[in-house]
Each structure stands twice: as structure tokens, then as C-alpha cells.
């Protein structure tokens, strides 16, 4: 979860055996702190976030991908046990992204 976007909400349910996948743009980022340093432990997802329409989407940005890459927690998040808090998938859309979508639809209606 990005430090600079406080309106994003994580799932935080109990994790299962399924590994979280990210797109090529988010490859190497820690899902908790956005660090690109020392990937250590694979990200695990809850059963709801790993099946259905969410299965082929990046756990950080929500974009689709062809071939997903496993997501990893950084060493500092593992040491501080943030990897045990729950499922890290972002379940809502940030306010800046929703504003962009709203403005785009409004502009389409005018044209």
C-alpha cells in the first residue's frame, strides 16, 4: 500500500496458501511499504482475493496482466511482522483515481 495514498484500504482477512501476483509495473514493490529493497517472503492472499475476477489482477494496482510475478514482502516488513497482519490486496479505488474516472465520464457526456 502506498504511503502517500491514505485512502486505500487493504483486505486484511486471514491468509491462505495462495500466492499474490503483481503486474510488471509493480514487480519488486513491497505491498505494505512500497520498498524496492531486499524481497524476502512471498505474499499470501485470502481465499476470496485469489479466485474469481480478482485472480488475474495485480494485488497493488488492480490492473490485469498476462503473466503475473510473485509478490514479496521486504526484509523490514518481515522483521516488524507486518507480513502477518492479513491479506494485503487493495480492495478500493483511491480518491484521485475515482475523480479521474468521474471527470472522464463527464467529459464524454459533453462531447
TrEMBL record:
Pfam families: PHF5. InterPro entries: PHF5. PANTHER family: PHD FINGER-LIKE DOMAIN-CONTAINING PROTEIN 5A. Belongs to the PHF5 family. This is Pre-mRNA-splicing factor Rds3p. It comes from [Candida] anglica. The gene is RDS3.
